[in-house]
Automatic annotation (TrEMBL):
Keywords: ATP-binding, Nucleotide-binding
A single Gene Ontology CC term: cytosol
Residue ranges constituting the PIN domain according to the UniProt record: 12-147
Classification via CDD domains: PIN_VapC_PhoHL-ATPase
Family statement drawn from the similarity comment of this UniProt entry: In the N-terminal section; belongs to the PINc/VapC protein family.
GO molecular-function term, one example from the UniProt record: ATP binding
Annotated protein name in UniProt: AAA family ATPase
Gene3D superfamilies xrefs: 5'-nuclease, P-loop containing nucleotide triphosphate hydrolases
Length: 468
């Protein structure tokens, strides 16, 4: 009797690991026409992780609720799979299968079946054997789980849907160098005029269609040029020269910018029309110092904002130091060393007055800076505040949305971070909330971004960043 050919399938079968659902509860609707299989062990692990107030616990509860809605609305037999078209509102057209039977599959002796990960691997092996003509793929955020799966001859993938970019090198930098022949190509029909100390150029054609609003352009010619895009209509753009914050007469709280990118950043920070600023850069590029200098000037001198609110994600680099006594501000104090260091620098630039004068200035400054924890941000609205989110690379896109939507009328939000220093598990350079907002906000008239390139801390810090 001839051997029957295995049936071939057009769509794939993805087996979900628990960490995918805890990372993104909406992942159930992100696999388009493909089918999903949720092992019993995944449901068990969701159940054991649902208690608490952490982001992971909230996501576990949300994933369970979504699965409950899908199952309770199903009219079909669970063994045949539940169509996802209705629950996902057309986002997914595959089916959801729940493990409805005990699966016994002999794993290698070195893999104890007590462990949840290994039970999920057993399910994947069982499905791969049951559907020989079908691609059965394990989806997991756990690197070791994927390595084990591949070692057993199974297909495994990371969960990519949350990634804004595959390669962080493709991330928008906020600035671009103009080609040497830029003026020759764009001189035809160019308009130019001066207004309030700035020169404006209206040009069209050439690279204009590629430019984004609030993008910085520069040219290292004998007469260097630094401009930014202020208006864009189709292939016509309006360029405006920048304020030179590197000159002592334009110093901000006694600070002058030391390089081109810092000057770009300060133009964004000091412009009242820009509501949302993102600054990326490695340690020592001056992100926090520039932001605080701009914030203090606009709170204490020009009174544009009523106070500064600073927050950051409390993810320790080493071991946690346990529960901390005191008020919210006192609990946040260990995380705010960067703020204190920068305030010491800024306080030293306020001129004469001796020790008493400096102490009085420090007290005045501290009275206008509030330090808030991320844990209590839900439901808040900040009106007329200068909100600084430090170490923003450790935020998930969902947390970032929660924070940025706190902004009320007259509030400016500044996100600082270095996507090469992510301390949160399951977040990568491509899926960080900071990468997410940089990509989504580019080209909006009231937001700006700049990637700071050069460290300005010290020759020791610069050399360490290069060689270590």
């Amino acid at each position: 009797m001839p051997k029957r050919k295995p049936r071939t399938y057009d769509n794939k079968l993805f087996v979900l690991d628990t960490n995918v659902l805890m990372h993104d509860p909406t992942s159930l609707f992100r696999f388009e026409e493909h089918d999903l299989f949720v092992p019993i062990m995944t449901l068990e692990e969701l159940d054991s992780n649902k208690k608490g107030m952490s982001e992971v616990a909230r996501n576990a509860r949300q994933a369970s609720r979504m699965m409950d809605e899908i199952v309770s609305s199903a009219t079909e037999d669970l063994k045949d799979g539940i169509p996802l078209h209705e629950p996902s509102r057309g986002m997914a057209s595959g089916k959801l299968f729940l493990q409805a039977e005990a699966i016994r599959y002999e794993l290698p002796e070195a893999l104890p079946t007590v462990k949840g990960d290994n039970q999920i691997l057993a399910v994947v092996m069982h499905l791969a054997q049951r559907y020989p003509g079908r691609e059965v793929i394990l989806v997991s955020k756990d690197i070791n789980m994927r390595i084990k799966a591949r070692a057993l001859g199974l297909e495994a993938q990371d969960y990519f849907n949350d990634k804004v970019l595959e390669d962080s090198d493709l991330l928008y930098t906020g600035s671009r160098e103009l080609p040497a022949d830029f003026w020759d190509k764009h001189a035809k029909g160019m308009e130019s005029w001066k207004e309030e100390g700035h020169t404006f150029y209206r040009i069209e054609g050439g690279i204009c269609s590629d430019l984004l609003l609030n993008e910085f352009l520069y040219q290292d010619a004998p007469t260097p040029l630094e401009v930014w895009v202020k208006e864009k209509e189709g292939k016509r753009v309006l360029l405006e020269t920048l304020t030179d914050f590197g000159h002592a007469k334009n110093s901000v709280w006694g600070i002058t910018t030391r390089n081109r990118e810092q000057n770009f950043a300060m133009n964004l920070l000091m412009n009242p029309q820009i509501d949302f600023v993102t600054l990326l850069g490695q340690a020592g590029t001056g992100k926090t110092l520039l932001t605080l200098a701009a914030a203090l000037t606009q709170v204490l001198e020009t009174k544009r904002y009523s106070e500064i609110i600073m927050t950051r994600v409390t993810v320790p680099v080493g071991e946690d130091i346990g529960f901390l006594p005191g008020t919210e501000e006192e609990k946040m104090a260990p995380w705010m060393g960067a703020l204190e260091d920068n305030l010491d620098v800024l306080n030293g630039t306020t001129g004469e007055g001796g020790e008493w004068g400096r102490a009085a200035t420090r007290d005045l400054i501290r009275s206008r800076i509030k330090i808030k924890s991320l844990n209590f941000m839900r439901g808040r609205t900040f009106i007329n505040k200068f909100l600084i989110i430090d170490e923003a690379q450790n935020l998930t896109p969902k947390q970032m949305k929660t924070l940025v939507t706190r902004a009320g009328p007259g509030t400016k939000v500044v996100c600082l971070g270095n996507i090469a220093q992510i301390d949160t598990p399951y977040l990568t350079e491509g899926s960080s909330g900071l990468t997410f907002v940089v990509d989504r906000f580019k080209g909006w008239a009231h937001s700006g971004h700049i990637t700071l390139q050069r460290g300005e801390r010290s020759r020791l810090a610069d050399h360490a960043a290069e060689v270590l």
